[in-house]
Each structure stands twice: as structure tokens, then as C-alpha cells.
Amino acid sequence: MANRYFGRKAIILKTKKYKPKLNSFMKMHKCEICGKELNSEESLKNHKNDKHGIIKKSNFVKKSHLIYFSLVILILVAGFFTFKSATAPGEHDNFAKCLTEHGAIFYGAFWCPHCADQKKLFGKSIQYVNYIECSTPDKGGQTPICIGAKIRGYPTWEFKDGSRLSGLISLEDLSEKSECPLENLSEPLNLE
After folding, report:
1. How confident is the model at residue 141 (pLDDT cuts 50, 70, 90)?
2. Where in the chain are the domains?
3. CB 178 within 8 A of CB 102
4. Architecture of domain 93-178
5. Residue 109, pLDDT score
6. Residue 169 confidence (pLDDT)
7. Residue 50 — φ and ψ, nearest 5°?
8. What is the rounded distance in angstroms from the CA atom of residue 43 to the CA atom of residue 20?
9. What is the pLDDT of residue 173?
């Protein structure tokens, strides 16, 4: 008889919805979204996360901290490479210094496209060129130093011997005119 009773019980359990009887110490937790009852608070949190996409606050804080930390690292790396490239010597530093030491002067205007192209040829090394700005801030006139030097067009290069070259001048032509070497400038020049 025991086997038969067990078999019937199994059939009953399969056909009816089986709800275990709650002990008086068990508290049911109800999902506010779908109304499902769960037997523990942890089960309720897991249910909300899995079924309704509600992320636990503690995980959200951790994810947001990870995002902020990643952004800070990214900014620091970008800043490092920007600083490194800004402090690295220019390709033509020694050539530009040699031009200045040999008395070459570059007259130009901030609005002049050929002057901008001339500056681009030097890159970061333009800081070592003896450059004189000839335009007034309103683009309406010339500075006194350029009037006194009788500069008529931009860019104009003036050399120690008083000769001038006008227009966009290649670095090779500047090297030839000034006798400043353009190649193999990895070592500082010894100019006496």
C-alpha cells in the first residue's frame, strides 16, 4: 500500500500546482512589478534583475566607478603623449637656430597664406627663427619696423649681407643662401 500511496502522491504533485506550505517563520516577498511571490529577499533581487532588467545599486556604482576610472586613465595617457610630443625637439631646430645666428630675418603677416606655408615648413622649429610681424592687428597697415626696413611683400627673408628673397622659399634655398646646413642636424651646431 505504501508504494501505491507514494505513486498517487506523485501524480497529484504533477497535475496540481504544488505550493509548499509556509512555516510561520518564512516571509514571502512580492515583486511590485509582476506580482510574483518569492521566498527570500535575495531571490526577489535576482528576479528583478533577471526578469525586469533592474540592476542592483551596488553593481551600478561599481560599473560607474569603472567608467570614470577608465576615462581618467584615457585622459592621463592622452596628456602624456601630448606633453611628450610638445616637448620633443622639432625636426629643423638646429637649422632654424643657425638661420637666426647667421642674421636671417623672416618678415611676415599673420593673415598671409604664404607666410603660414613658410611657417609650416619649419614646423615646431619656427620658434627659433627670427620672425618679425609686419601687420597691424586690424590688417590695415604695417608696423614701424617693417616700414623702416622697406618691406613690400610677404614673406620676405633678409640676410646678413642685406640681400632679400621674397615669396615662399624652400628650406633648401634658405640653406644655400644662408650657408646653414639642412641635413644631418641631429647634433647641436658648433658656431663660432
Report:
1. very high
2. 2-52, 57-88, 93-178
3. yes
4. 3-Layer(aba) Sandwich (3.40)
5. 96
6. 94
7. -75, -45
8. 16
9. 93
